[in-house]
Design brief:
Chain lengths: ~290, ~240, ~325
Amino acid sequence: MEWLNAILQGVLLGGLYALFAAGLSLMFGVMRFVNLAHGDFIVAAAFAALLLVDLTGMPPLATLAVIVPAMALAGYIGQRVMLNRLTGGDLLPSILVTFGLSVILQNLLLEGFSADSRRLSAGWLDTAAVQIGGGLSVGAVPLLLFLTAIGVLGLLSWVFGRTGTGRLLRATSDDPEIVGLMGADKKHLYGIAMAMAAAVVGLAGVLLAIKTNFDPASGPIRLLFAFEAVIIGGLGSLWGTLAGGILLGVAQGVGAQIDPGLQILAGHLVFLAILILKPQGLLPRQRS
Amino acid sequence: MSALLEISGLDAFYGDFQALFGIDFHVGEGECVALVGANGAGKTTFLRCLTGLLLVPGQDMTFDGHPIAGLPPHMIARAGIAMSPEGRRLFPSLSVEENLLLGANVGRAGDWTLRSVKALFPVLEEKAGTPSTLLSGGQQQMVAIGRALMANPRLLLLDEVSLGLAPVIVRSIFAALPLIRAGGTSVILVEQDISQAVAMSDRLYCLQEGHVSLTGPSTELNRERISAAYFGRMTEDA
Amino acid sequence: MSLITLSRFALAGFVIAALTAGPLWADRGTMRLLVEVFYYLALAQLWNLLAGYSGLISVGQQAFVGLGGYLIFSLAMFAGVPILWGLPLAGLLTALIAWPTALVAFRLAGPYFAIGTWVIAEVFRLGFAQISALGGGSGISLPAGMVKAMASNRTARESLTYWIALAIMLAVVIGIWLLMRSRIGLALSALRDNEEAAISVGVRTRPLKFGLYVATAGVTGLIGALIFVQKLRITPEAAFSVTDWTVLVIFMTVIGGIGTLEGPILGCILFFVLREFLADLGSWYMVILGMVSVGIMLVEPRGLWGLLTRLRPVTLFPVVRKRKTS
């Protein structure tokens, strides 16, 4: 019974990991750009939510209405002003610049918020639970996160598959040079892609703040989880990322059940196992 | 009547390497002009300059009276120049229909719509939902041309349409050219197949190692003169 | 031999002689600082070899620093291996363990390879924290007996540690210099510039990458062993610290200048000078270092050395091969 519960918790956690991974996946898919500060931006968004609630007393979930659009805007501007120089070019600068950003962000957060572990309370939601029969119950917060993650992935999938902008983004990821011939401004498109990724990061950050404890140094491990979810799931596939996130979550849940100290290590080991045995991932996108 | 496209003394460089030397070139409204030359002569470089894929700021290139040198590709596309690139360069993640729809992204109004393009190349209707990379070479070429047409261009650039295709397929593709021209579109035809180039065009330019080595009305240029210009041999006229 | 080459050798000789005489003119504190400078310089040169010269960007070298440390402690405590023998042995064993990790890491490319190396380091950290025989999460100290067995007294031991660190640093710098002047160095540059093109002209990139990664890991392990011998105590946090063994190393190399031998030297010296003045600032110190790094990558990717040589081209370590004139 405990094991079943552990696995169930892991599946729900996987939704959050898939959300972490979605932003990373989007940036890499469209722009071949990996942001090593990805986890730190998620944590920064979490702290922003904390700040907003402290200053205005608004309900935690309401901070989404501020943070998501703000991150989207910041992402667009950041891309056009600074990051467009790095995308699509030499690998070294983009890795090192984002690595530097990661350190800067962590230390700024440290100065601003101290090293204490924080958490955002969602009031009654924190302890609410849903009974799902067989004696199993599921926390309202994890369930909410999971459903949100599915919803966001579904939305992204729809945008990419069925809208004109999504088509442009897919084409840009295929061949950024020729896309220009179709009247599409590559710089603007990259900005849009980054805005979308940033919005997802903002969302993930707020949800992280509600779900679990976080501190200024929690960023890098989130990057690792996001990365592992992407690789386990298979590059280029949004639903693969969900599968990857779920497998990672379950691995961690089972690991924690064996010994609390093994939680994260178990996840890493499963990741390595997939990398060794099935390097293309669980659901890789087929490309002829 | 002033030309639709007017180019004077175009030089183009890849880094320190000069690929084009003082090219003079013009295309009149409604004309079909062929551009021939050996591999590496500079034909594709020339088209890249035209479309903005190779930036040549400060050079003398005028389209419809407006200078276009130094403009980025998307602005030149909006001005009315579209290209079927060498090697087709279809988007692998997109289906045939999505590739065509993308061509319309430029947002220029005109006769070419999804419907009319499919009428021009009926096989595209049949293969609409197929991933573009699963089509045969000839079908892919039709998608590439259709995609360029969807932009309702005033000037259509066809880069090596016949490359890698069987002659019978090439003929069927070129059969569509008069229909395209009938809509008022001017065409620049870059070709290795000289007989097609001569047959389909009003005028012809020959490039040789980055220089224009020959130009004139297609009907007045015989095989021998073109060969000489192509390979850089001197003839009695030269 | 030209005058320039002669003066270069003379300068080098003077510097090396002065450093070797360190125990004579430096006090304990200064010697410890110099040891730190030596091993950071060596780590920076090694990271530069991977990333700057060969295009293999790793943010997981801390895996091998920590591994070297734990290996020498284990060899001393469980196999009674004297420290002086333990150092090279730890390096060798680190290289051996690096081999399978390379097999895993090289399944990834580019930025994902970088993150992969980080995951591997984390696995080591979490793994060693589970080994109670090595103190688990709280770590363990080097047995006093083994420490005393290194040399006759404390002063002698510290001098010995100093000379070993100096020797390693010189070996790394000169070794990398000679490597980059060799055919292998040429192949590495080709690998960095364009792996596909390198393969197409016959460079066997896979054994090259592997060999480089494993060799660098081994030397990094050797350095890690020395570091923790000097500290006398090891914990998983300290052994596998991203900040200590990767962040600072990368910042030093980037600020000094990636892709040259002079860059890391400049960056390392600058770093230690800055540390004297800025260490009181706490987190702001890291923010400043980070911002300088980012600024340099955006503005002058060849770092401060690149800026200096733009004004006046100078090379202390000529790496470009001169064609033999017949």
